[in-house]
């Protein structure tokens, strides 16, 4: 199997590089994406709030996990949008579909938060 010429390091160096790339990704998303900043704010509110409810550890973990899932989906959605815009800024049905599907994925993630929190808190 031929490896990508962009893949270089192994071991600890690779892990450190990957951590740096991840931090750069978080930074880019926070600076450039209002939706990501809004989701960070939602997480800053909901995750600590989950500790004030009388729920099991498993339920609390699920409440936190679905909040973090929305951040993951937004990062992927933003990445899709960036790639589509990098390829071309022209309006094209496939570009619109890609962006709309990323948005739909985020809608599903937010729906999951609502459903999970409602089921747990309302019993």
TrEMBL record:
Q: Can you name one GO molecular function term for this protein?
A: ATP binding
According to the record, the segments passing through the membrane are 36-55, 62-84, 104-122
- Mind naming one GO cellular-component term on file for this protein? plasma membrane
Instruction: Give the highest taxon in the source lineage.
Output: Bacteria
Gene designation: dgkA
- The UniProt annotation places ATP binding at 14, 21, 33, 81, 90-92, 99-100
- Source organism per entry reads Pseudomonas knackmussii (strain DSM 6978 / CCUG 54928 / LMG 23759 / B13)
Predominant place of localization: membrane
The record, for PANTHER family, names:
DIACYLGLYCEROL KINASE (PTHR34299)
Q: Which cofactor does it need?
A: Mg(2+)
DNA-binding: present as a keyword of the record? no
- Source lineage: Bacteria, Pseudomonadati, Pseudomonadota, Gammaproteobacteria, Pseudomonadales
Name of the featured protein: Diacylglycerol kinase
Q: Where in the cell is it found?
A: Cell inner membrane
Task: Report whether Lipoprotein shows up as a keyword of the record.
Answer: no
Keyword annotations of the record:
ATP-binding, Cell inner membrane, Cell membrane, Kinase, Lipid biosynthesis, Lipid metabolism, Magnesium, Membrane, Metal-binding, Nucleotide-binding, Phospholipid biosynthesis, Phospholipid metabolism, Transferase, Transmembrane, Transmembrane helix
Report residues binding a divalent metal cation. 33, 81
List the GO biological process terms.
Answer: phosphatidic acid biosynthetic process
Catalytic activity reported: a 1,2-diacyl-sn-glycerol + ATP = a 1,2-diacyl-sn-glycero-3-phosphate + ADP + H(+)
Q: Where is the active site?
A: 74 (proton acceptor)
How the cofactor is bound: the record states: Mn(2+), Zn(2+), Cd(2+) and Co(2+) support activity to lesser extents.
Residues reported to bind substrate: 14, 60, 74, 103
Role noted for this protein: Catalyzes the ATP-dependent phosphorylation of sn-l,2-diacylglycerol (DAG) to phosphatidic acid. Involved in the recycling of diacylglycerol produced as a by-product during membrane-derived oligosaccharide (MDO) biosynthesis.
Q: State the similarity comment.
A: Belongs to the bacterial diacylglycerol kinase family.
Q: How is it placed in the membrane, per its record?
A: Multi-pass membrane protein
Q: What is its EC number?
A: 2.7.1.107
- InterPro entries named in the record: DAGK (IPR000829), DAGK_prok (IPR033718), DAGK_sf (IPR036945)
